[in-house]
Amino acid sequence: MKLVASLTSPYARKIRVALAEKGLPFTLEVDIPWLPETAVPSYNPLGKVPALVADDGEVWYDSPVIALYLETLGGAPLLPAERLASLPVRQTEALADGITDAAVAAFLEGNRPPEKQDQAGIERQLTKIHRGLAALEERLVQRKGFGGASINIADIAVGCMLGYLDFRFGHLHWRSTHPNLAAWAADLLARPSFTDTAPPPA
Ligand SMILES: N[C@@H](CCC(=O)N[C@@H](CS)C(=O)NCC(=O)O)C(=O)O
């Protein structure tokens, strides 16, 4: 099994953490989809990482689909097998991934030359991040979709999203505005699966 990923992608990190938590062996093919010489479109027509090449040759994307595929391979379960019970977990995963989408969009826009940046667009994405974090804190208080005693895919998605905020949006200081999330994330982000996959220094 081969994972095509960049080392800074929070979505790819989600799958690297999931593979580590499940104890599934894989090879990592590092590819940066923004470079002209990238081979990512040969795996995923959308040109995005992560993409997972299964042992039978099938290629899976995007990260929620890869996570579902990994459940079929065994290892520690990261999603309840029962469909209805899996929905709150997948909802929390989708919320975390959506915050990541907003953060990536804001980062890319903020990387354009200053005169070309759409400030209203950046603000719109930042609002999604703030609303999303508030909703996540609420779900955490209600224990809705989070793993509790054993880690699940929602925990992993939230951890990778928070790690991305640390990586690109340290100035947002999400820990001081979301103390419950901060207390919960401290243990999660200290797990070897997370420390081993931290993005390289910028
Ligand atoms: N929904 C996708 C998002 C994947 C994604 O946007 N990956 C970024 C890297 S962080 C990418 O490959 N971007 C390249 C591009 O948009 O052309 C997933 O969960 O896998």
Automatic annotation (TrEMBL):
InterPro entries given for it?
Glutathione-S-Trfase_C-like, Glutathione-S-Trfase_C_sf, Glutathione_S-Trfase, Glutathione_S-Trfase_N, GST_Omega/HSP26, Thioredoxin-like_sf
**Which Pfam families does the record match to this protein?**
GST_C_2 (PF13410), GST_N_2 (PF13409)
Q: Which residue numbers delimit the GST N-terminal domain?
A: 1-78
The segment(s) forming the GST C-terminal domain are 82-202
Q: What is this protein called?
A: Glutathione S-transferase
